[in-house]
Amino acid sequence: MVDVRSDSQMRAKMRQEGCREEFASLYAAHELQLFSYILALTGSTAAAEDVFQETCVVMWQKFSEFQIGTNFAAWARKIAYHMVMRYHKQTGRRHVLLGDAFVETISAVRSKRAAMRDHRSEALQHCLGKLGQRDRELLACRYDNDSLTIKDVAQKLGRPANTVYKALRRIRASLLECVRRTLPQGEHR
């Protein structure tokens, strides 16, 4: 006979492991962006490091509330914003010239820029998918290994370097135009 309690405990442990892996993956992808955001709001590296650590703990504690598939960066920034405001209240180190309104404005601007970066990245992925196989292979050959020069790529592909330069210029221009067409008006910068 199967012990129901141990079976449910095992399922709970498996969910926790999956949750841990998902959190670690999302955290790793957004760690630098989140720290930069906190640094912009605190204005001090030491303060940013303290708030960042506290923010990460709260994010982990509240991760079960995060809806997988939604915007992790926006969720993390919201938590970070509240942690920065809490830090200012606790330490009394709020910058007299800045104030809460300024911090809110900075927060809104940084959030908008992050959203625009996300949109541009999605548009670029969409446009890369529209490229032909040969163009995608050329891009992969050129950009998957930063140590290769154009001449190295040309040799590897058995094509003249000038042809590779022209092809890459054409592909970049095509991607730029596609991204501009794909993005909503005003997000081209």
Give a brief outline of the structure.
The chain has 189 residues and is mainly α. It contains 7 helices and no strands. The protein has a domain at 1-97: RNA polymerase sigma factor, region 2, helix turn helix motif (Rna Polymerase Sigma Factor, Chain: A, Orthogonal Bundle).
**SSE pattern, N- to C-terminal:** HHHHHHH
CATH topology of the domain at 1-97: Rna Polymerase Sigma Factor, Chain: A
Query: How much helix, percentage-wise, in residues?
Result: over 70%
CATH architecture of the domain at 1-97: Orthogonal Bundle
Number of helices: 7
Computed over alpha carbons, the radius of gyration is: 23 Å
What is the number of beta strands? Answer: 0
Structural class: mainly alpha
As a percent range, the share of strand residues is: under 5%
The 3D shape can be described as elongated
What is the fourth-level CATH superfamily of the domain at 1-97? Answer: RNA polymerase sigma factor, region 2, helix turn helix motif
> For the record, what CATH class of the domain at 1-97 applies?
Mainly Alpha
Name its key features.
single chain; 189 residues; mainly alpha; Rna Polymerase Sigma Factor, Chain: A; disordered N terminus
Describe this entry's structure for a reader:
The chain has 189 residues and is mostly helical. The chain has a domain of 97 residues: Orthogonal Bundle (Rna Polymerase Sigma Factor, Chain: A), CATH 1.10.1740.10. Helix content is 79%, strand content 0%. The protein has 7 helices and no strands.
List the helices and strands and how they pair.
Elements (H helix, E strand, L loop, with lengths): L3 H39 L2 H18 L9 H20 L7 H32 L2 H11 L6 H8 L3 H22 L7
Helix pairs in contact: 1-2, 1-3, 1-4, 2-3, 3-4, 4-7, 6-7
